[in-house]
Amino acid sequence: MRMRLMLLGGGNALGQALIRLGAEEDIAFLAPRPPETGWDAASLTQLLDDTRPDALINLAYYFDWFQAEEASEARLAAQEQAVERLAELCQHHEIRLLQPSSYRVFDGSRVTAYSEKEEPVPLGMRGQALWRIEQRVRAVCPRHVLLRFGWLLDESPDGQLGRFLRRAERDDSIALADDRRGNPTPVDDAARVILAVLKQLDCQAPLWGTFHYGGQEAATSLALGQAVLSEARNLRSNLLEDITAQAHAARPDAAEEPQHAVLACKKILHTFGIKPRAWRSALPSLLDRYYRHV
Hints:
Layout: E1 5-8, H1 13-24, H2 41-51, E2 55-58, H3 62-67, H4 73-93, E3 96-102, H5 125-140, E4 144-149, E5 151-153, H6 160-170, E6 175-177, E7 181-182, E8 184-186, H7 187-202, E9 209-213, E10 219-220, H8 221-232, E11 244-246, E12 260-261, H9 266-272, H10 283-293
Parallel strand pairs: 1-2, 2-3, 3-4, 4-9, 5-8, 6-11, 7-12
Antiparallel strand pairs: 7-10
Helix pairs in contact: 1-7, 2-4, 4-5
Family: Belongs to the dTDP-4-dehydrorhamnose reductase family.
GO molecular function, one term: dTDP-4-dehydrorhamnose reductase activity
EC number: 1.1.1.133
């Protein structure tokens, strides 16, 4: 890799997966430790003035955007400002910016898969913040790659998978929507995609724009939960026997979470040659990491 790569958010699950995968191919990341209060406009300005990398992967707010149960309006607003400043700095220093986004920019009213051409209409606060961030990145920093991911699964104890597994040990019953669909996407697979994009950018390929990626085989929340439970029983015996089916409309997060969140991944295949991988085959290693850390 000729480019000098900077990774913001190297301590979170996706950042760690990217560092692990890069190490296997002798690709190193400069992964600075964030300030105690987190990255903000001032600290990012100082960082990039001092370091001037060739490409920057911004996973600084990964947990809030992809794994947290909820994120406050004030916190998201501060993150928006920081990413806007980051985009300005990348443009000023001619740094390529790889910025993650999410299926949450869509409202879930479309039954068929969402392509990059569909107009975003976000439902909740997080989706709205991500859509504003996307717009600012496009306006300010032309040399960008926006990667919208499907349902990201990681081993963090407080992440979506971790919360589900804790409930499976503790609760008498769990209900999940049998009419809500998306692309489960293990964090190692998302890291593979980011690395593949970086390799192409390293070849000076001007492949800028917005791309979708989600694991192969769309699934309902219920089917995903059942698959996770089935695999987790190989590692833990004290888990709930079964999951109850529930309608999306009856779920407490129905106003914020898109009912139909399947992403079409043809553009990333045709542009970067990245093929979707089956998410089910990644569950054993993902669950093994989770249980080793709890």
